[in-house]
Amino acid sequence: MTSEKISEPNEHSDAGHIDSSSEPVSPANSDPALPSFLTHPGKVDRWLLTALGLITVYSLALIPLRAYLLLNHTFLYTLLTGSSLSVLSIAARTPYQPLLWAGLVTVAALSAVKFLVVYFFMGKYWGQAFLDWIFSSHTPLWYRKLEGFVQRHIYFCLFLAFLPFSPIPATILVAIAGIRRLKGWAIAGYVFLLALLLKCLYFYLGVTFGEEIKPVLMTIDRYMMQATLALMAYMFLVIWFKNRKKS
């Protein structure tokens, strides 16, 4: 994400609109390229921005540790990320222990959706300006083509987002649910149920195929790492190119 975003002022921010006729605005705070929750953040805005920053640092810090934790500290990795692949790995080498199995899939499901509540409230308080900012004026083709469908069928789209290896980002869909002011408890319960079903599927695969699934696990993880790094590189290149072009 970058500061080079174009969005309308945030109607849900505590900061509200600033009347330039009654109070001077510094050049740094009058940049029209920034949404109002960045230029004039209120208390809620600052909390949400801090949470978003912590989530970003947390996610980036785990990337280089993914393979090590997945193979050597699998349960810890499950606790930290809710990884479906770690659930599969534990199931493949764990004897019949119903309580442990139930606890494993529950913890994994909770960990997988733990940050979605932040995106829901960002959508609720920042509105459409949040999507404009997070897309950095490069709205994905899938969203431009399917925006109306997504808005009308948010629960079905969330279901698609929780299918194995789905490219649909649940974070964006939950933010859209917040923008639409849907009931937070209903969205939270629904995404937890979807995450629980997904973890149960991977658990079943691990129990069914046992240790034979381990080479597949390592291969999938390697491709996921490559895709993540490629996506990050593309994002930084886009930001760099836009900044250079503007300057």
Features of this protein?
247 residues; mainly alpha; disordered N terminus
Report the principal-axis shape. Answer: globular
Major pleated sheet? none
Question: Can you count the helices?
Answer: 13
| Order of helical and strand elements | HHHHHHHHHHHHH
Folded structure, characterized:
The chain has 247 residues and is an all-alpha fold. Helix content is 70%, strand content 0%. It is globular, with a radius of gyration of 20 Å.
Summarize the structure.
It contains 13 helices and no strands. The chain has about 250 residues and is mainly α.
Write the layout of secondary structure elements.
Layout: H1 36-39, H2 43-62, H3 66-72, H4 74-81, H5 84-93, H6 98-113, H7 116-126, H8 128-134, H9 141-152, H10 154-161, H11 170-179, H12 184-209, H13 214-246
Helix pairs in contact: 2-7, 3-4, 4-5, 4-6, 5-12, 6-12, 7-11, 10-11
